[in-house]
Amino acid sequence: MKPMPNTLATIKSKLDNKVGEEMMVVAQAGRKKITKRHGILHKTYPAVFVVDLDQDENSFERVSYSYTDILTKNIEIAFE
């Protein structure tokens, strides 16, 4: 039997339980290019979540993504 497809609500509730944990975000950055960013899940909002980025690797402090990005596989997240 196939697993049920994730919904935005289940993605959000899983992330709600991970606030404050270290994570990695792998994002599609165009043709055959991906970016990997390490950070800490800062906060979840109704439509987006915010990641505080590792300042040694990135020039900006925070980035936000929508839960739709995970659902449509535009980004992948992994917790350390």
UniProtKB/TrEMBL annotation:
Transmembrane segments: none annotated. It comes from Pediococcus cellicola. Coiled coil: none annotated. InterPro entries: Protein_Veg. This is Veg protein. GO terms for biological process: regulation of DNA-templated transcription. PANTHER family: PROTEIN VEG (PTHR40026:SF1). It comes from the Bacteria.
